[in-house]
Amino acid sequence: MSRRKFLKNLGALGAGTVISPLAAQTHSSSSLPPKKNSPVVISTWIHGMEANAGAWEILGAGGDALDAVQKGVAVTESDMTNRSVGLGGRPDRDGHVTLDACIMDHDSRCGSVAFLEDIQHPIDVARAVMDKTPHVMLVGEGAQKWALENGFSKVDYPVPLPQVQKDYEDWLIKSEYKTGVNVENHDTIGMLALDASGRMAGACTTSGMAYKIRGRVGDSPIIGAGLFIDGDVGGATATGVGEAMIRTAGASAVVESMRRGASPEEACYDIVQRILKKHPGVEGMQVGFLAMNVQGEYGGYSVYNGFNYALRTQDRNEMVDAKYMRTWE
Ligand code: ASP
After folding, report:
1. For FRET with 198, which of 35, 93, 255, 270 sits at 20 to 30 Å CA-CA?
2. How far is the CA of 197 from the centre of ligand 1 (A)?
3. Under 8 Å CB-to-CB from 281, ≥6 apart: which residues?
4. What pLDDT sits at residue 246?
5. CA-CA distance, 291 to 43, in Å (whole number)?
C-alpha cells in the first residue's frame, strides 16, 4: 500500500479512533473481507480441508450455505479413519460410540441430535429434526427411533476397527479419564459458511470426548455452546473440552461480541480469555473457537497452540493457524 493511501485510510478511521493492542497483535491471522458475494467456508482442524471441498461443490455453484455445511461435515462423518467424528470415533467408557451433531441457519432455524447410536450421518438427522419437527433437539433412544421412522437406517455396528478396539482395551486397564491437548490433532468438525446470496449457516458433529462416561453430551450438539448463527451478525463454532463451552455459552458469547463490534478473531479471543478466567489452574485443557461475520471476515483463537482451521474461498484453499494464549510443550 502506498504511503499516501495508508495515510488516507488512517484519516478515514477518524480522530477519536483507538486501535486496540489486540487488533495490532492479531493482525497477521485476521482475514481480509472477501469480494462481495463471494462464498467463504471455514472448518476446524485438518479434516476440514476435505469437508470444505464437499461444501464447496454447493457454495461454488451458487448454492445454499445450509446445504453446503450439511454436505461438508458429512464428508468427515463418512471417514472411518477419523477417531473423533462419526462411527469411526472412539467409544465411551462402556465401549459404545455415541454421536452428537447440530445445524443452524441464518434465520435461527436449527436442529440437533445427541447420544445417538448406529446412524452413519447424525448431521442428516439433525437437519431432518429441523425441517420436519417443531422441536430443536432429540436425544438417545428417542432420537434413534425417530430417525428410523423417518427414512434413516441403522448401520451394522461395531464395524471392526482393530486399533480402536486395542486402544480402548489399553485404556480400560487404568480407566483414567483425562482431557488432553490435541492428542491426535483432530477433533470435532465445526463448519461455518457464507454463500453467494449472503446467507450464513453452520454445522457441528462429533463422537465426543474419548472414553467419556456413558450418557455424557458435550457442547457440539448444543445450540449456543458448540455452534451459534445469527443471520444479522455472523456465526461461531467450537472444538475442545465441551464442558468449558457449555459453562460459558461459548458460541453464543462469540456472536454477541461480534454484535457489539468485535472482529471475529477478537470475539474468539474474548471467550478464550473468559474460559481461562472461569477455569483457573486447569492445565492441558484445549478449547478452540472459529467465527465468521456476515461480511465474510473470519478468525479463530484457542487456549493452546496447535489449533488450526481449513479455509476455502474463490482464491484460497489452505490451512490457517489460529492464535493462542498458551504454549503446550
Ligand atoms: N467438543 C467435543 C466434546 O466436548 C470434543 C472435541 O471437540 O474434541 O464432545
Report:
1. 270
2. 31
3. none
4. 95
5. 10
Residue 98: CB within 6 Å of ligand 1? Answer: no
Q: Cα(227)–Cα(6) distance, rounded to whole angstroms?
A: 37
Nearest by Cα to 310 from 82, 52, 19, 32: 52
CATH 3.60.20.30 holds for 3-10+21-298+312-326:
yes
With cell 462464498, the residue in question is 39
State the pLDDT at residue 181. 57
Q: Is 188 a catalytic site residue? A: yes
Residue 197: other Cβ atoms inside 10 A: 12
Task: Tell me what pLDDT residue 12 has.
Answer: 33
Give residue limits of the domains in the chain. 3-10+21-298+312-326
Q: 186 alpha carbon to ligand 1 midpoint, in Å?
A: 10
Is 235 a pocket residue for ligand 1 (Cβ < 6 Å)? no
Phi and psi based region of residue 100 (left: phi greater than 0; alpha: psi -120 to 50; beta: remaining): beta
- Predicted pLDDT of residue 74: 98
Regions in the chain scoring below 70 on pLDDT: 1-36, 178-186, 280-282
Whether the CB-CB separation of 272 and 287 falls below 8 Å is answered with: yes
Three cell numbers, residue 119: 446412524
pLDDT at position 179 is 63
Cα(210) to centroid(ligand 1), Å = 9
